[in-house]
Amino acid sequence: MKTLVVIPTYNEKDNIARIIKAVFKLPLKKVEVLVVDDSSPDGTGTIVKELKKKYPRRLHLLTRKEKNGLGKAYVEGFKWALKRNYDFIVSMDADFSHHPKYLPKMLRLAQEGENDIVIGSRYIPGGGIVGWDWRRQLNSRGANIATRAMLGLKPKDSTAGYKVYAKSYLQSLPLDKLVASGYAFQVEMLYLGKERGAKMAELPIIFVDRQRGSSKIGGELKRSVKIVWRLFLRRRVVRQGAKFMSVGLMNAFLDGAILFSLVELASLDKIIARIISSSIALTSSYVLNRLWTFRNHSKKIAGQFFAFILINGSGLVWNNLLYGAMVKKLDINYLLAMVVATAIVAFWNFGLSKVWVFKEGKK
What's the whole-model pTM score? Predict the structure, then answer.
């Protein structure tokens, strides 16, 4: 299996020769290295050119005109690799925080386990970090927990940069349309994998903070937070939730409008009018959620409609029970109690509608 290790660099003259030689010392025959250098003013590219004389077939250099973000550098490297038909592509830092010694096991896990992505993980048993103070460790773990929760990611180390990608997975991605250009690129690659049902695995590594050169992470936190929020809003469940709430609000207005018209304009009995208006609104809600929110094409319409009514009916019961408990037992303002109870039941209705009523078939 042909493997390409992609190493983005900017001012890494103290590390680049050492990391390249360390990779080539591994007991791996078909491993090559591509350095993607952002025209480093410290001469990193020149060092790579000199090393190419020693490793003419295994070492490659791709020079970019300017510093344009870690994610963009990796995209250029991945596209270069795909054109040359490498089987596995590795993302690795130049500063030895991603030690090459873990690469054979990661490649074995990718190949034998048929994994699309193998992650060098700091946050599973056997993994860890050396050289960070407690504040930086706390920030990193907090970012991982928040990112995993927002994006529904299963890997424990969602911000890891040391990864092995299968060629087939990278070929499935719209590499020119990725939204992250900086360090959040690592998160986006996992998010896209989750959305595509990619098979992922983690291997524990000890991450050692750089000993030489300077960090390039400054200013990345705010940009990364923005990217994670953008990805969060792209999640299918979030979009469906927003549509579900929109349908609910629209049909609440529809219910009220029909009720008002039947009572005030048609002089219909209020109880009968309420039964008619709520029935129409409930039917409208089912149709819109089926066709628009969940885009469900099940042929079991009668059973589906009955389940939808059952969920909404039980939701109404829960709404009244919660409202009564908050007003009578907790002495909460009745308007606030109504809002809270309605919000809780809305999540109840949405969750059961998604996993039961409009449950998706297996892909």
Answer: 0.76
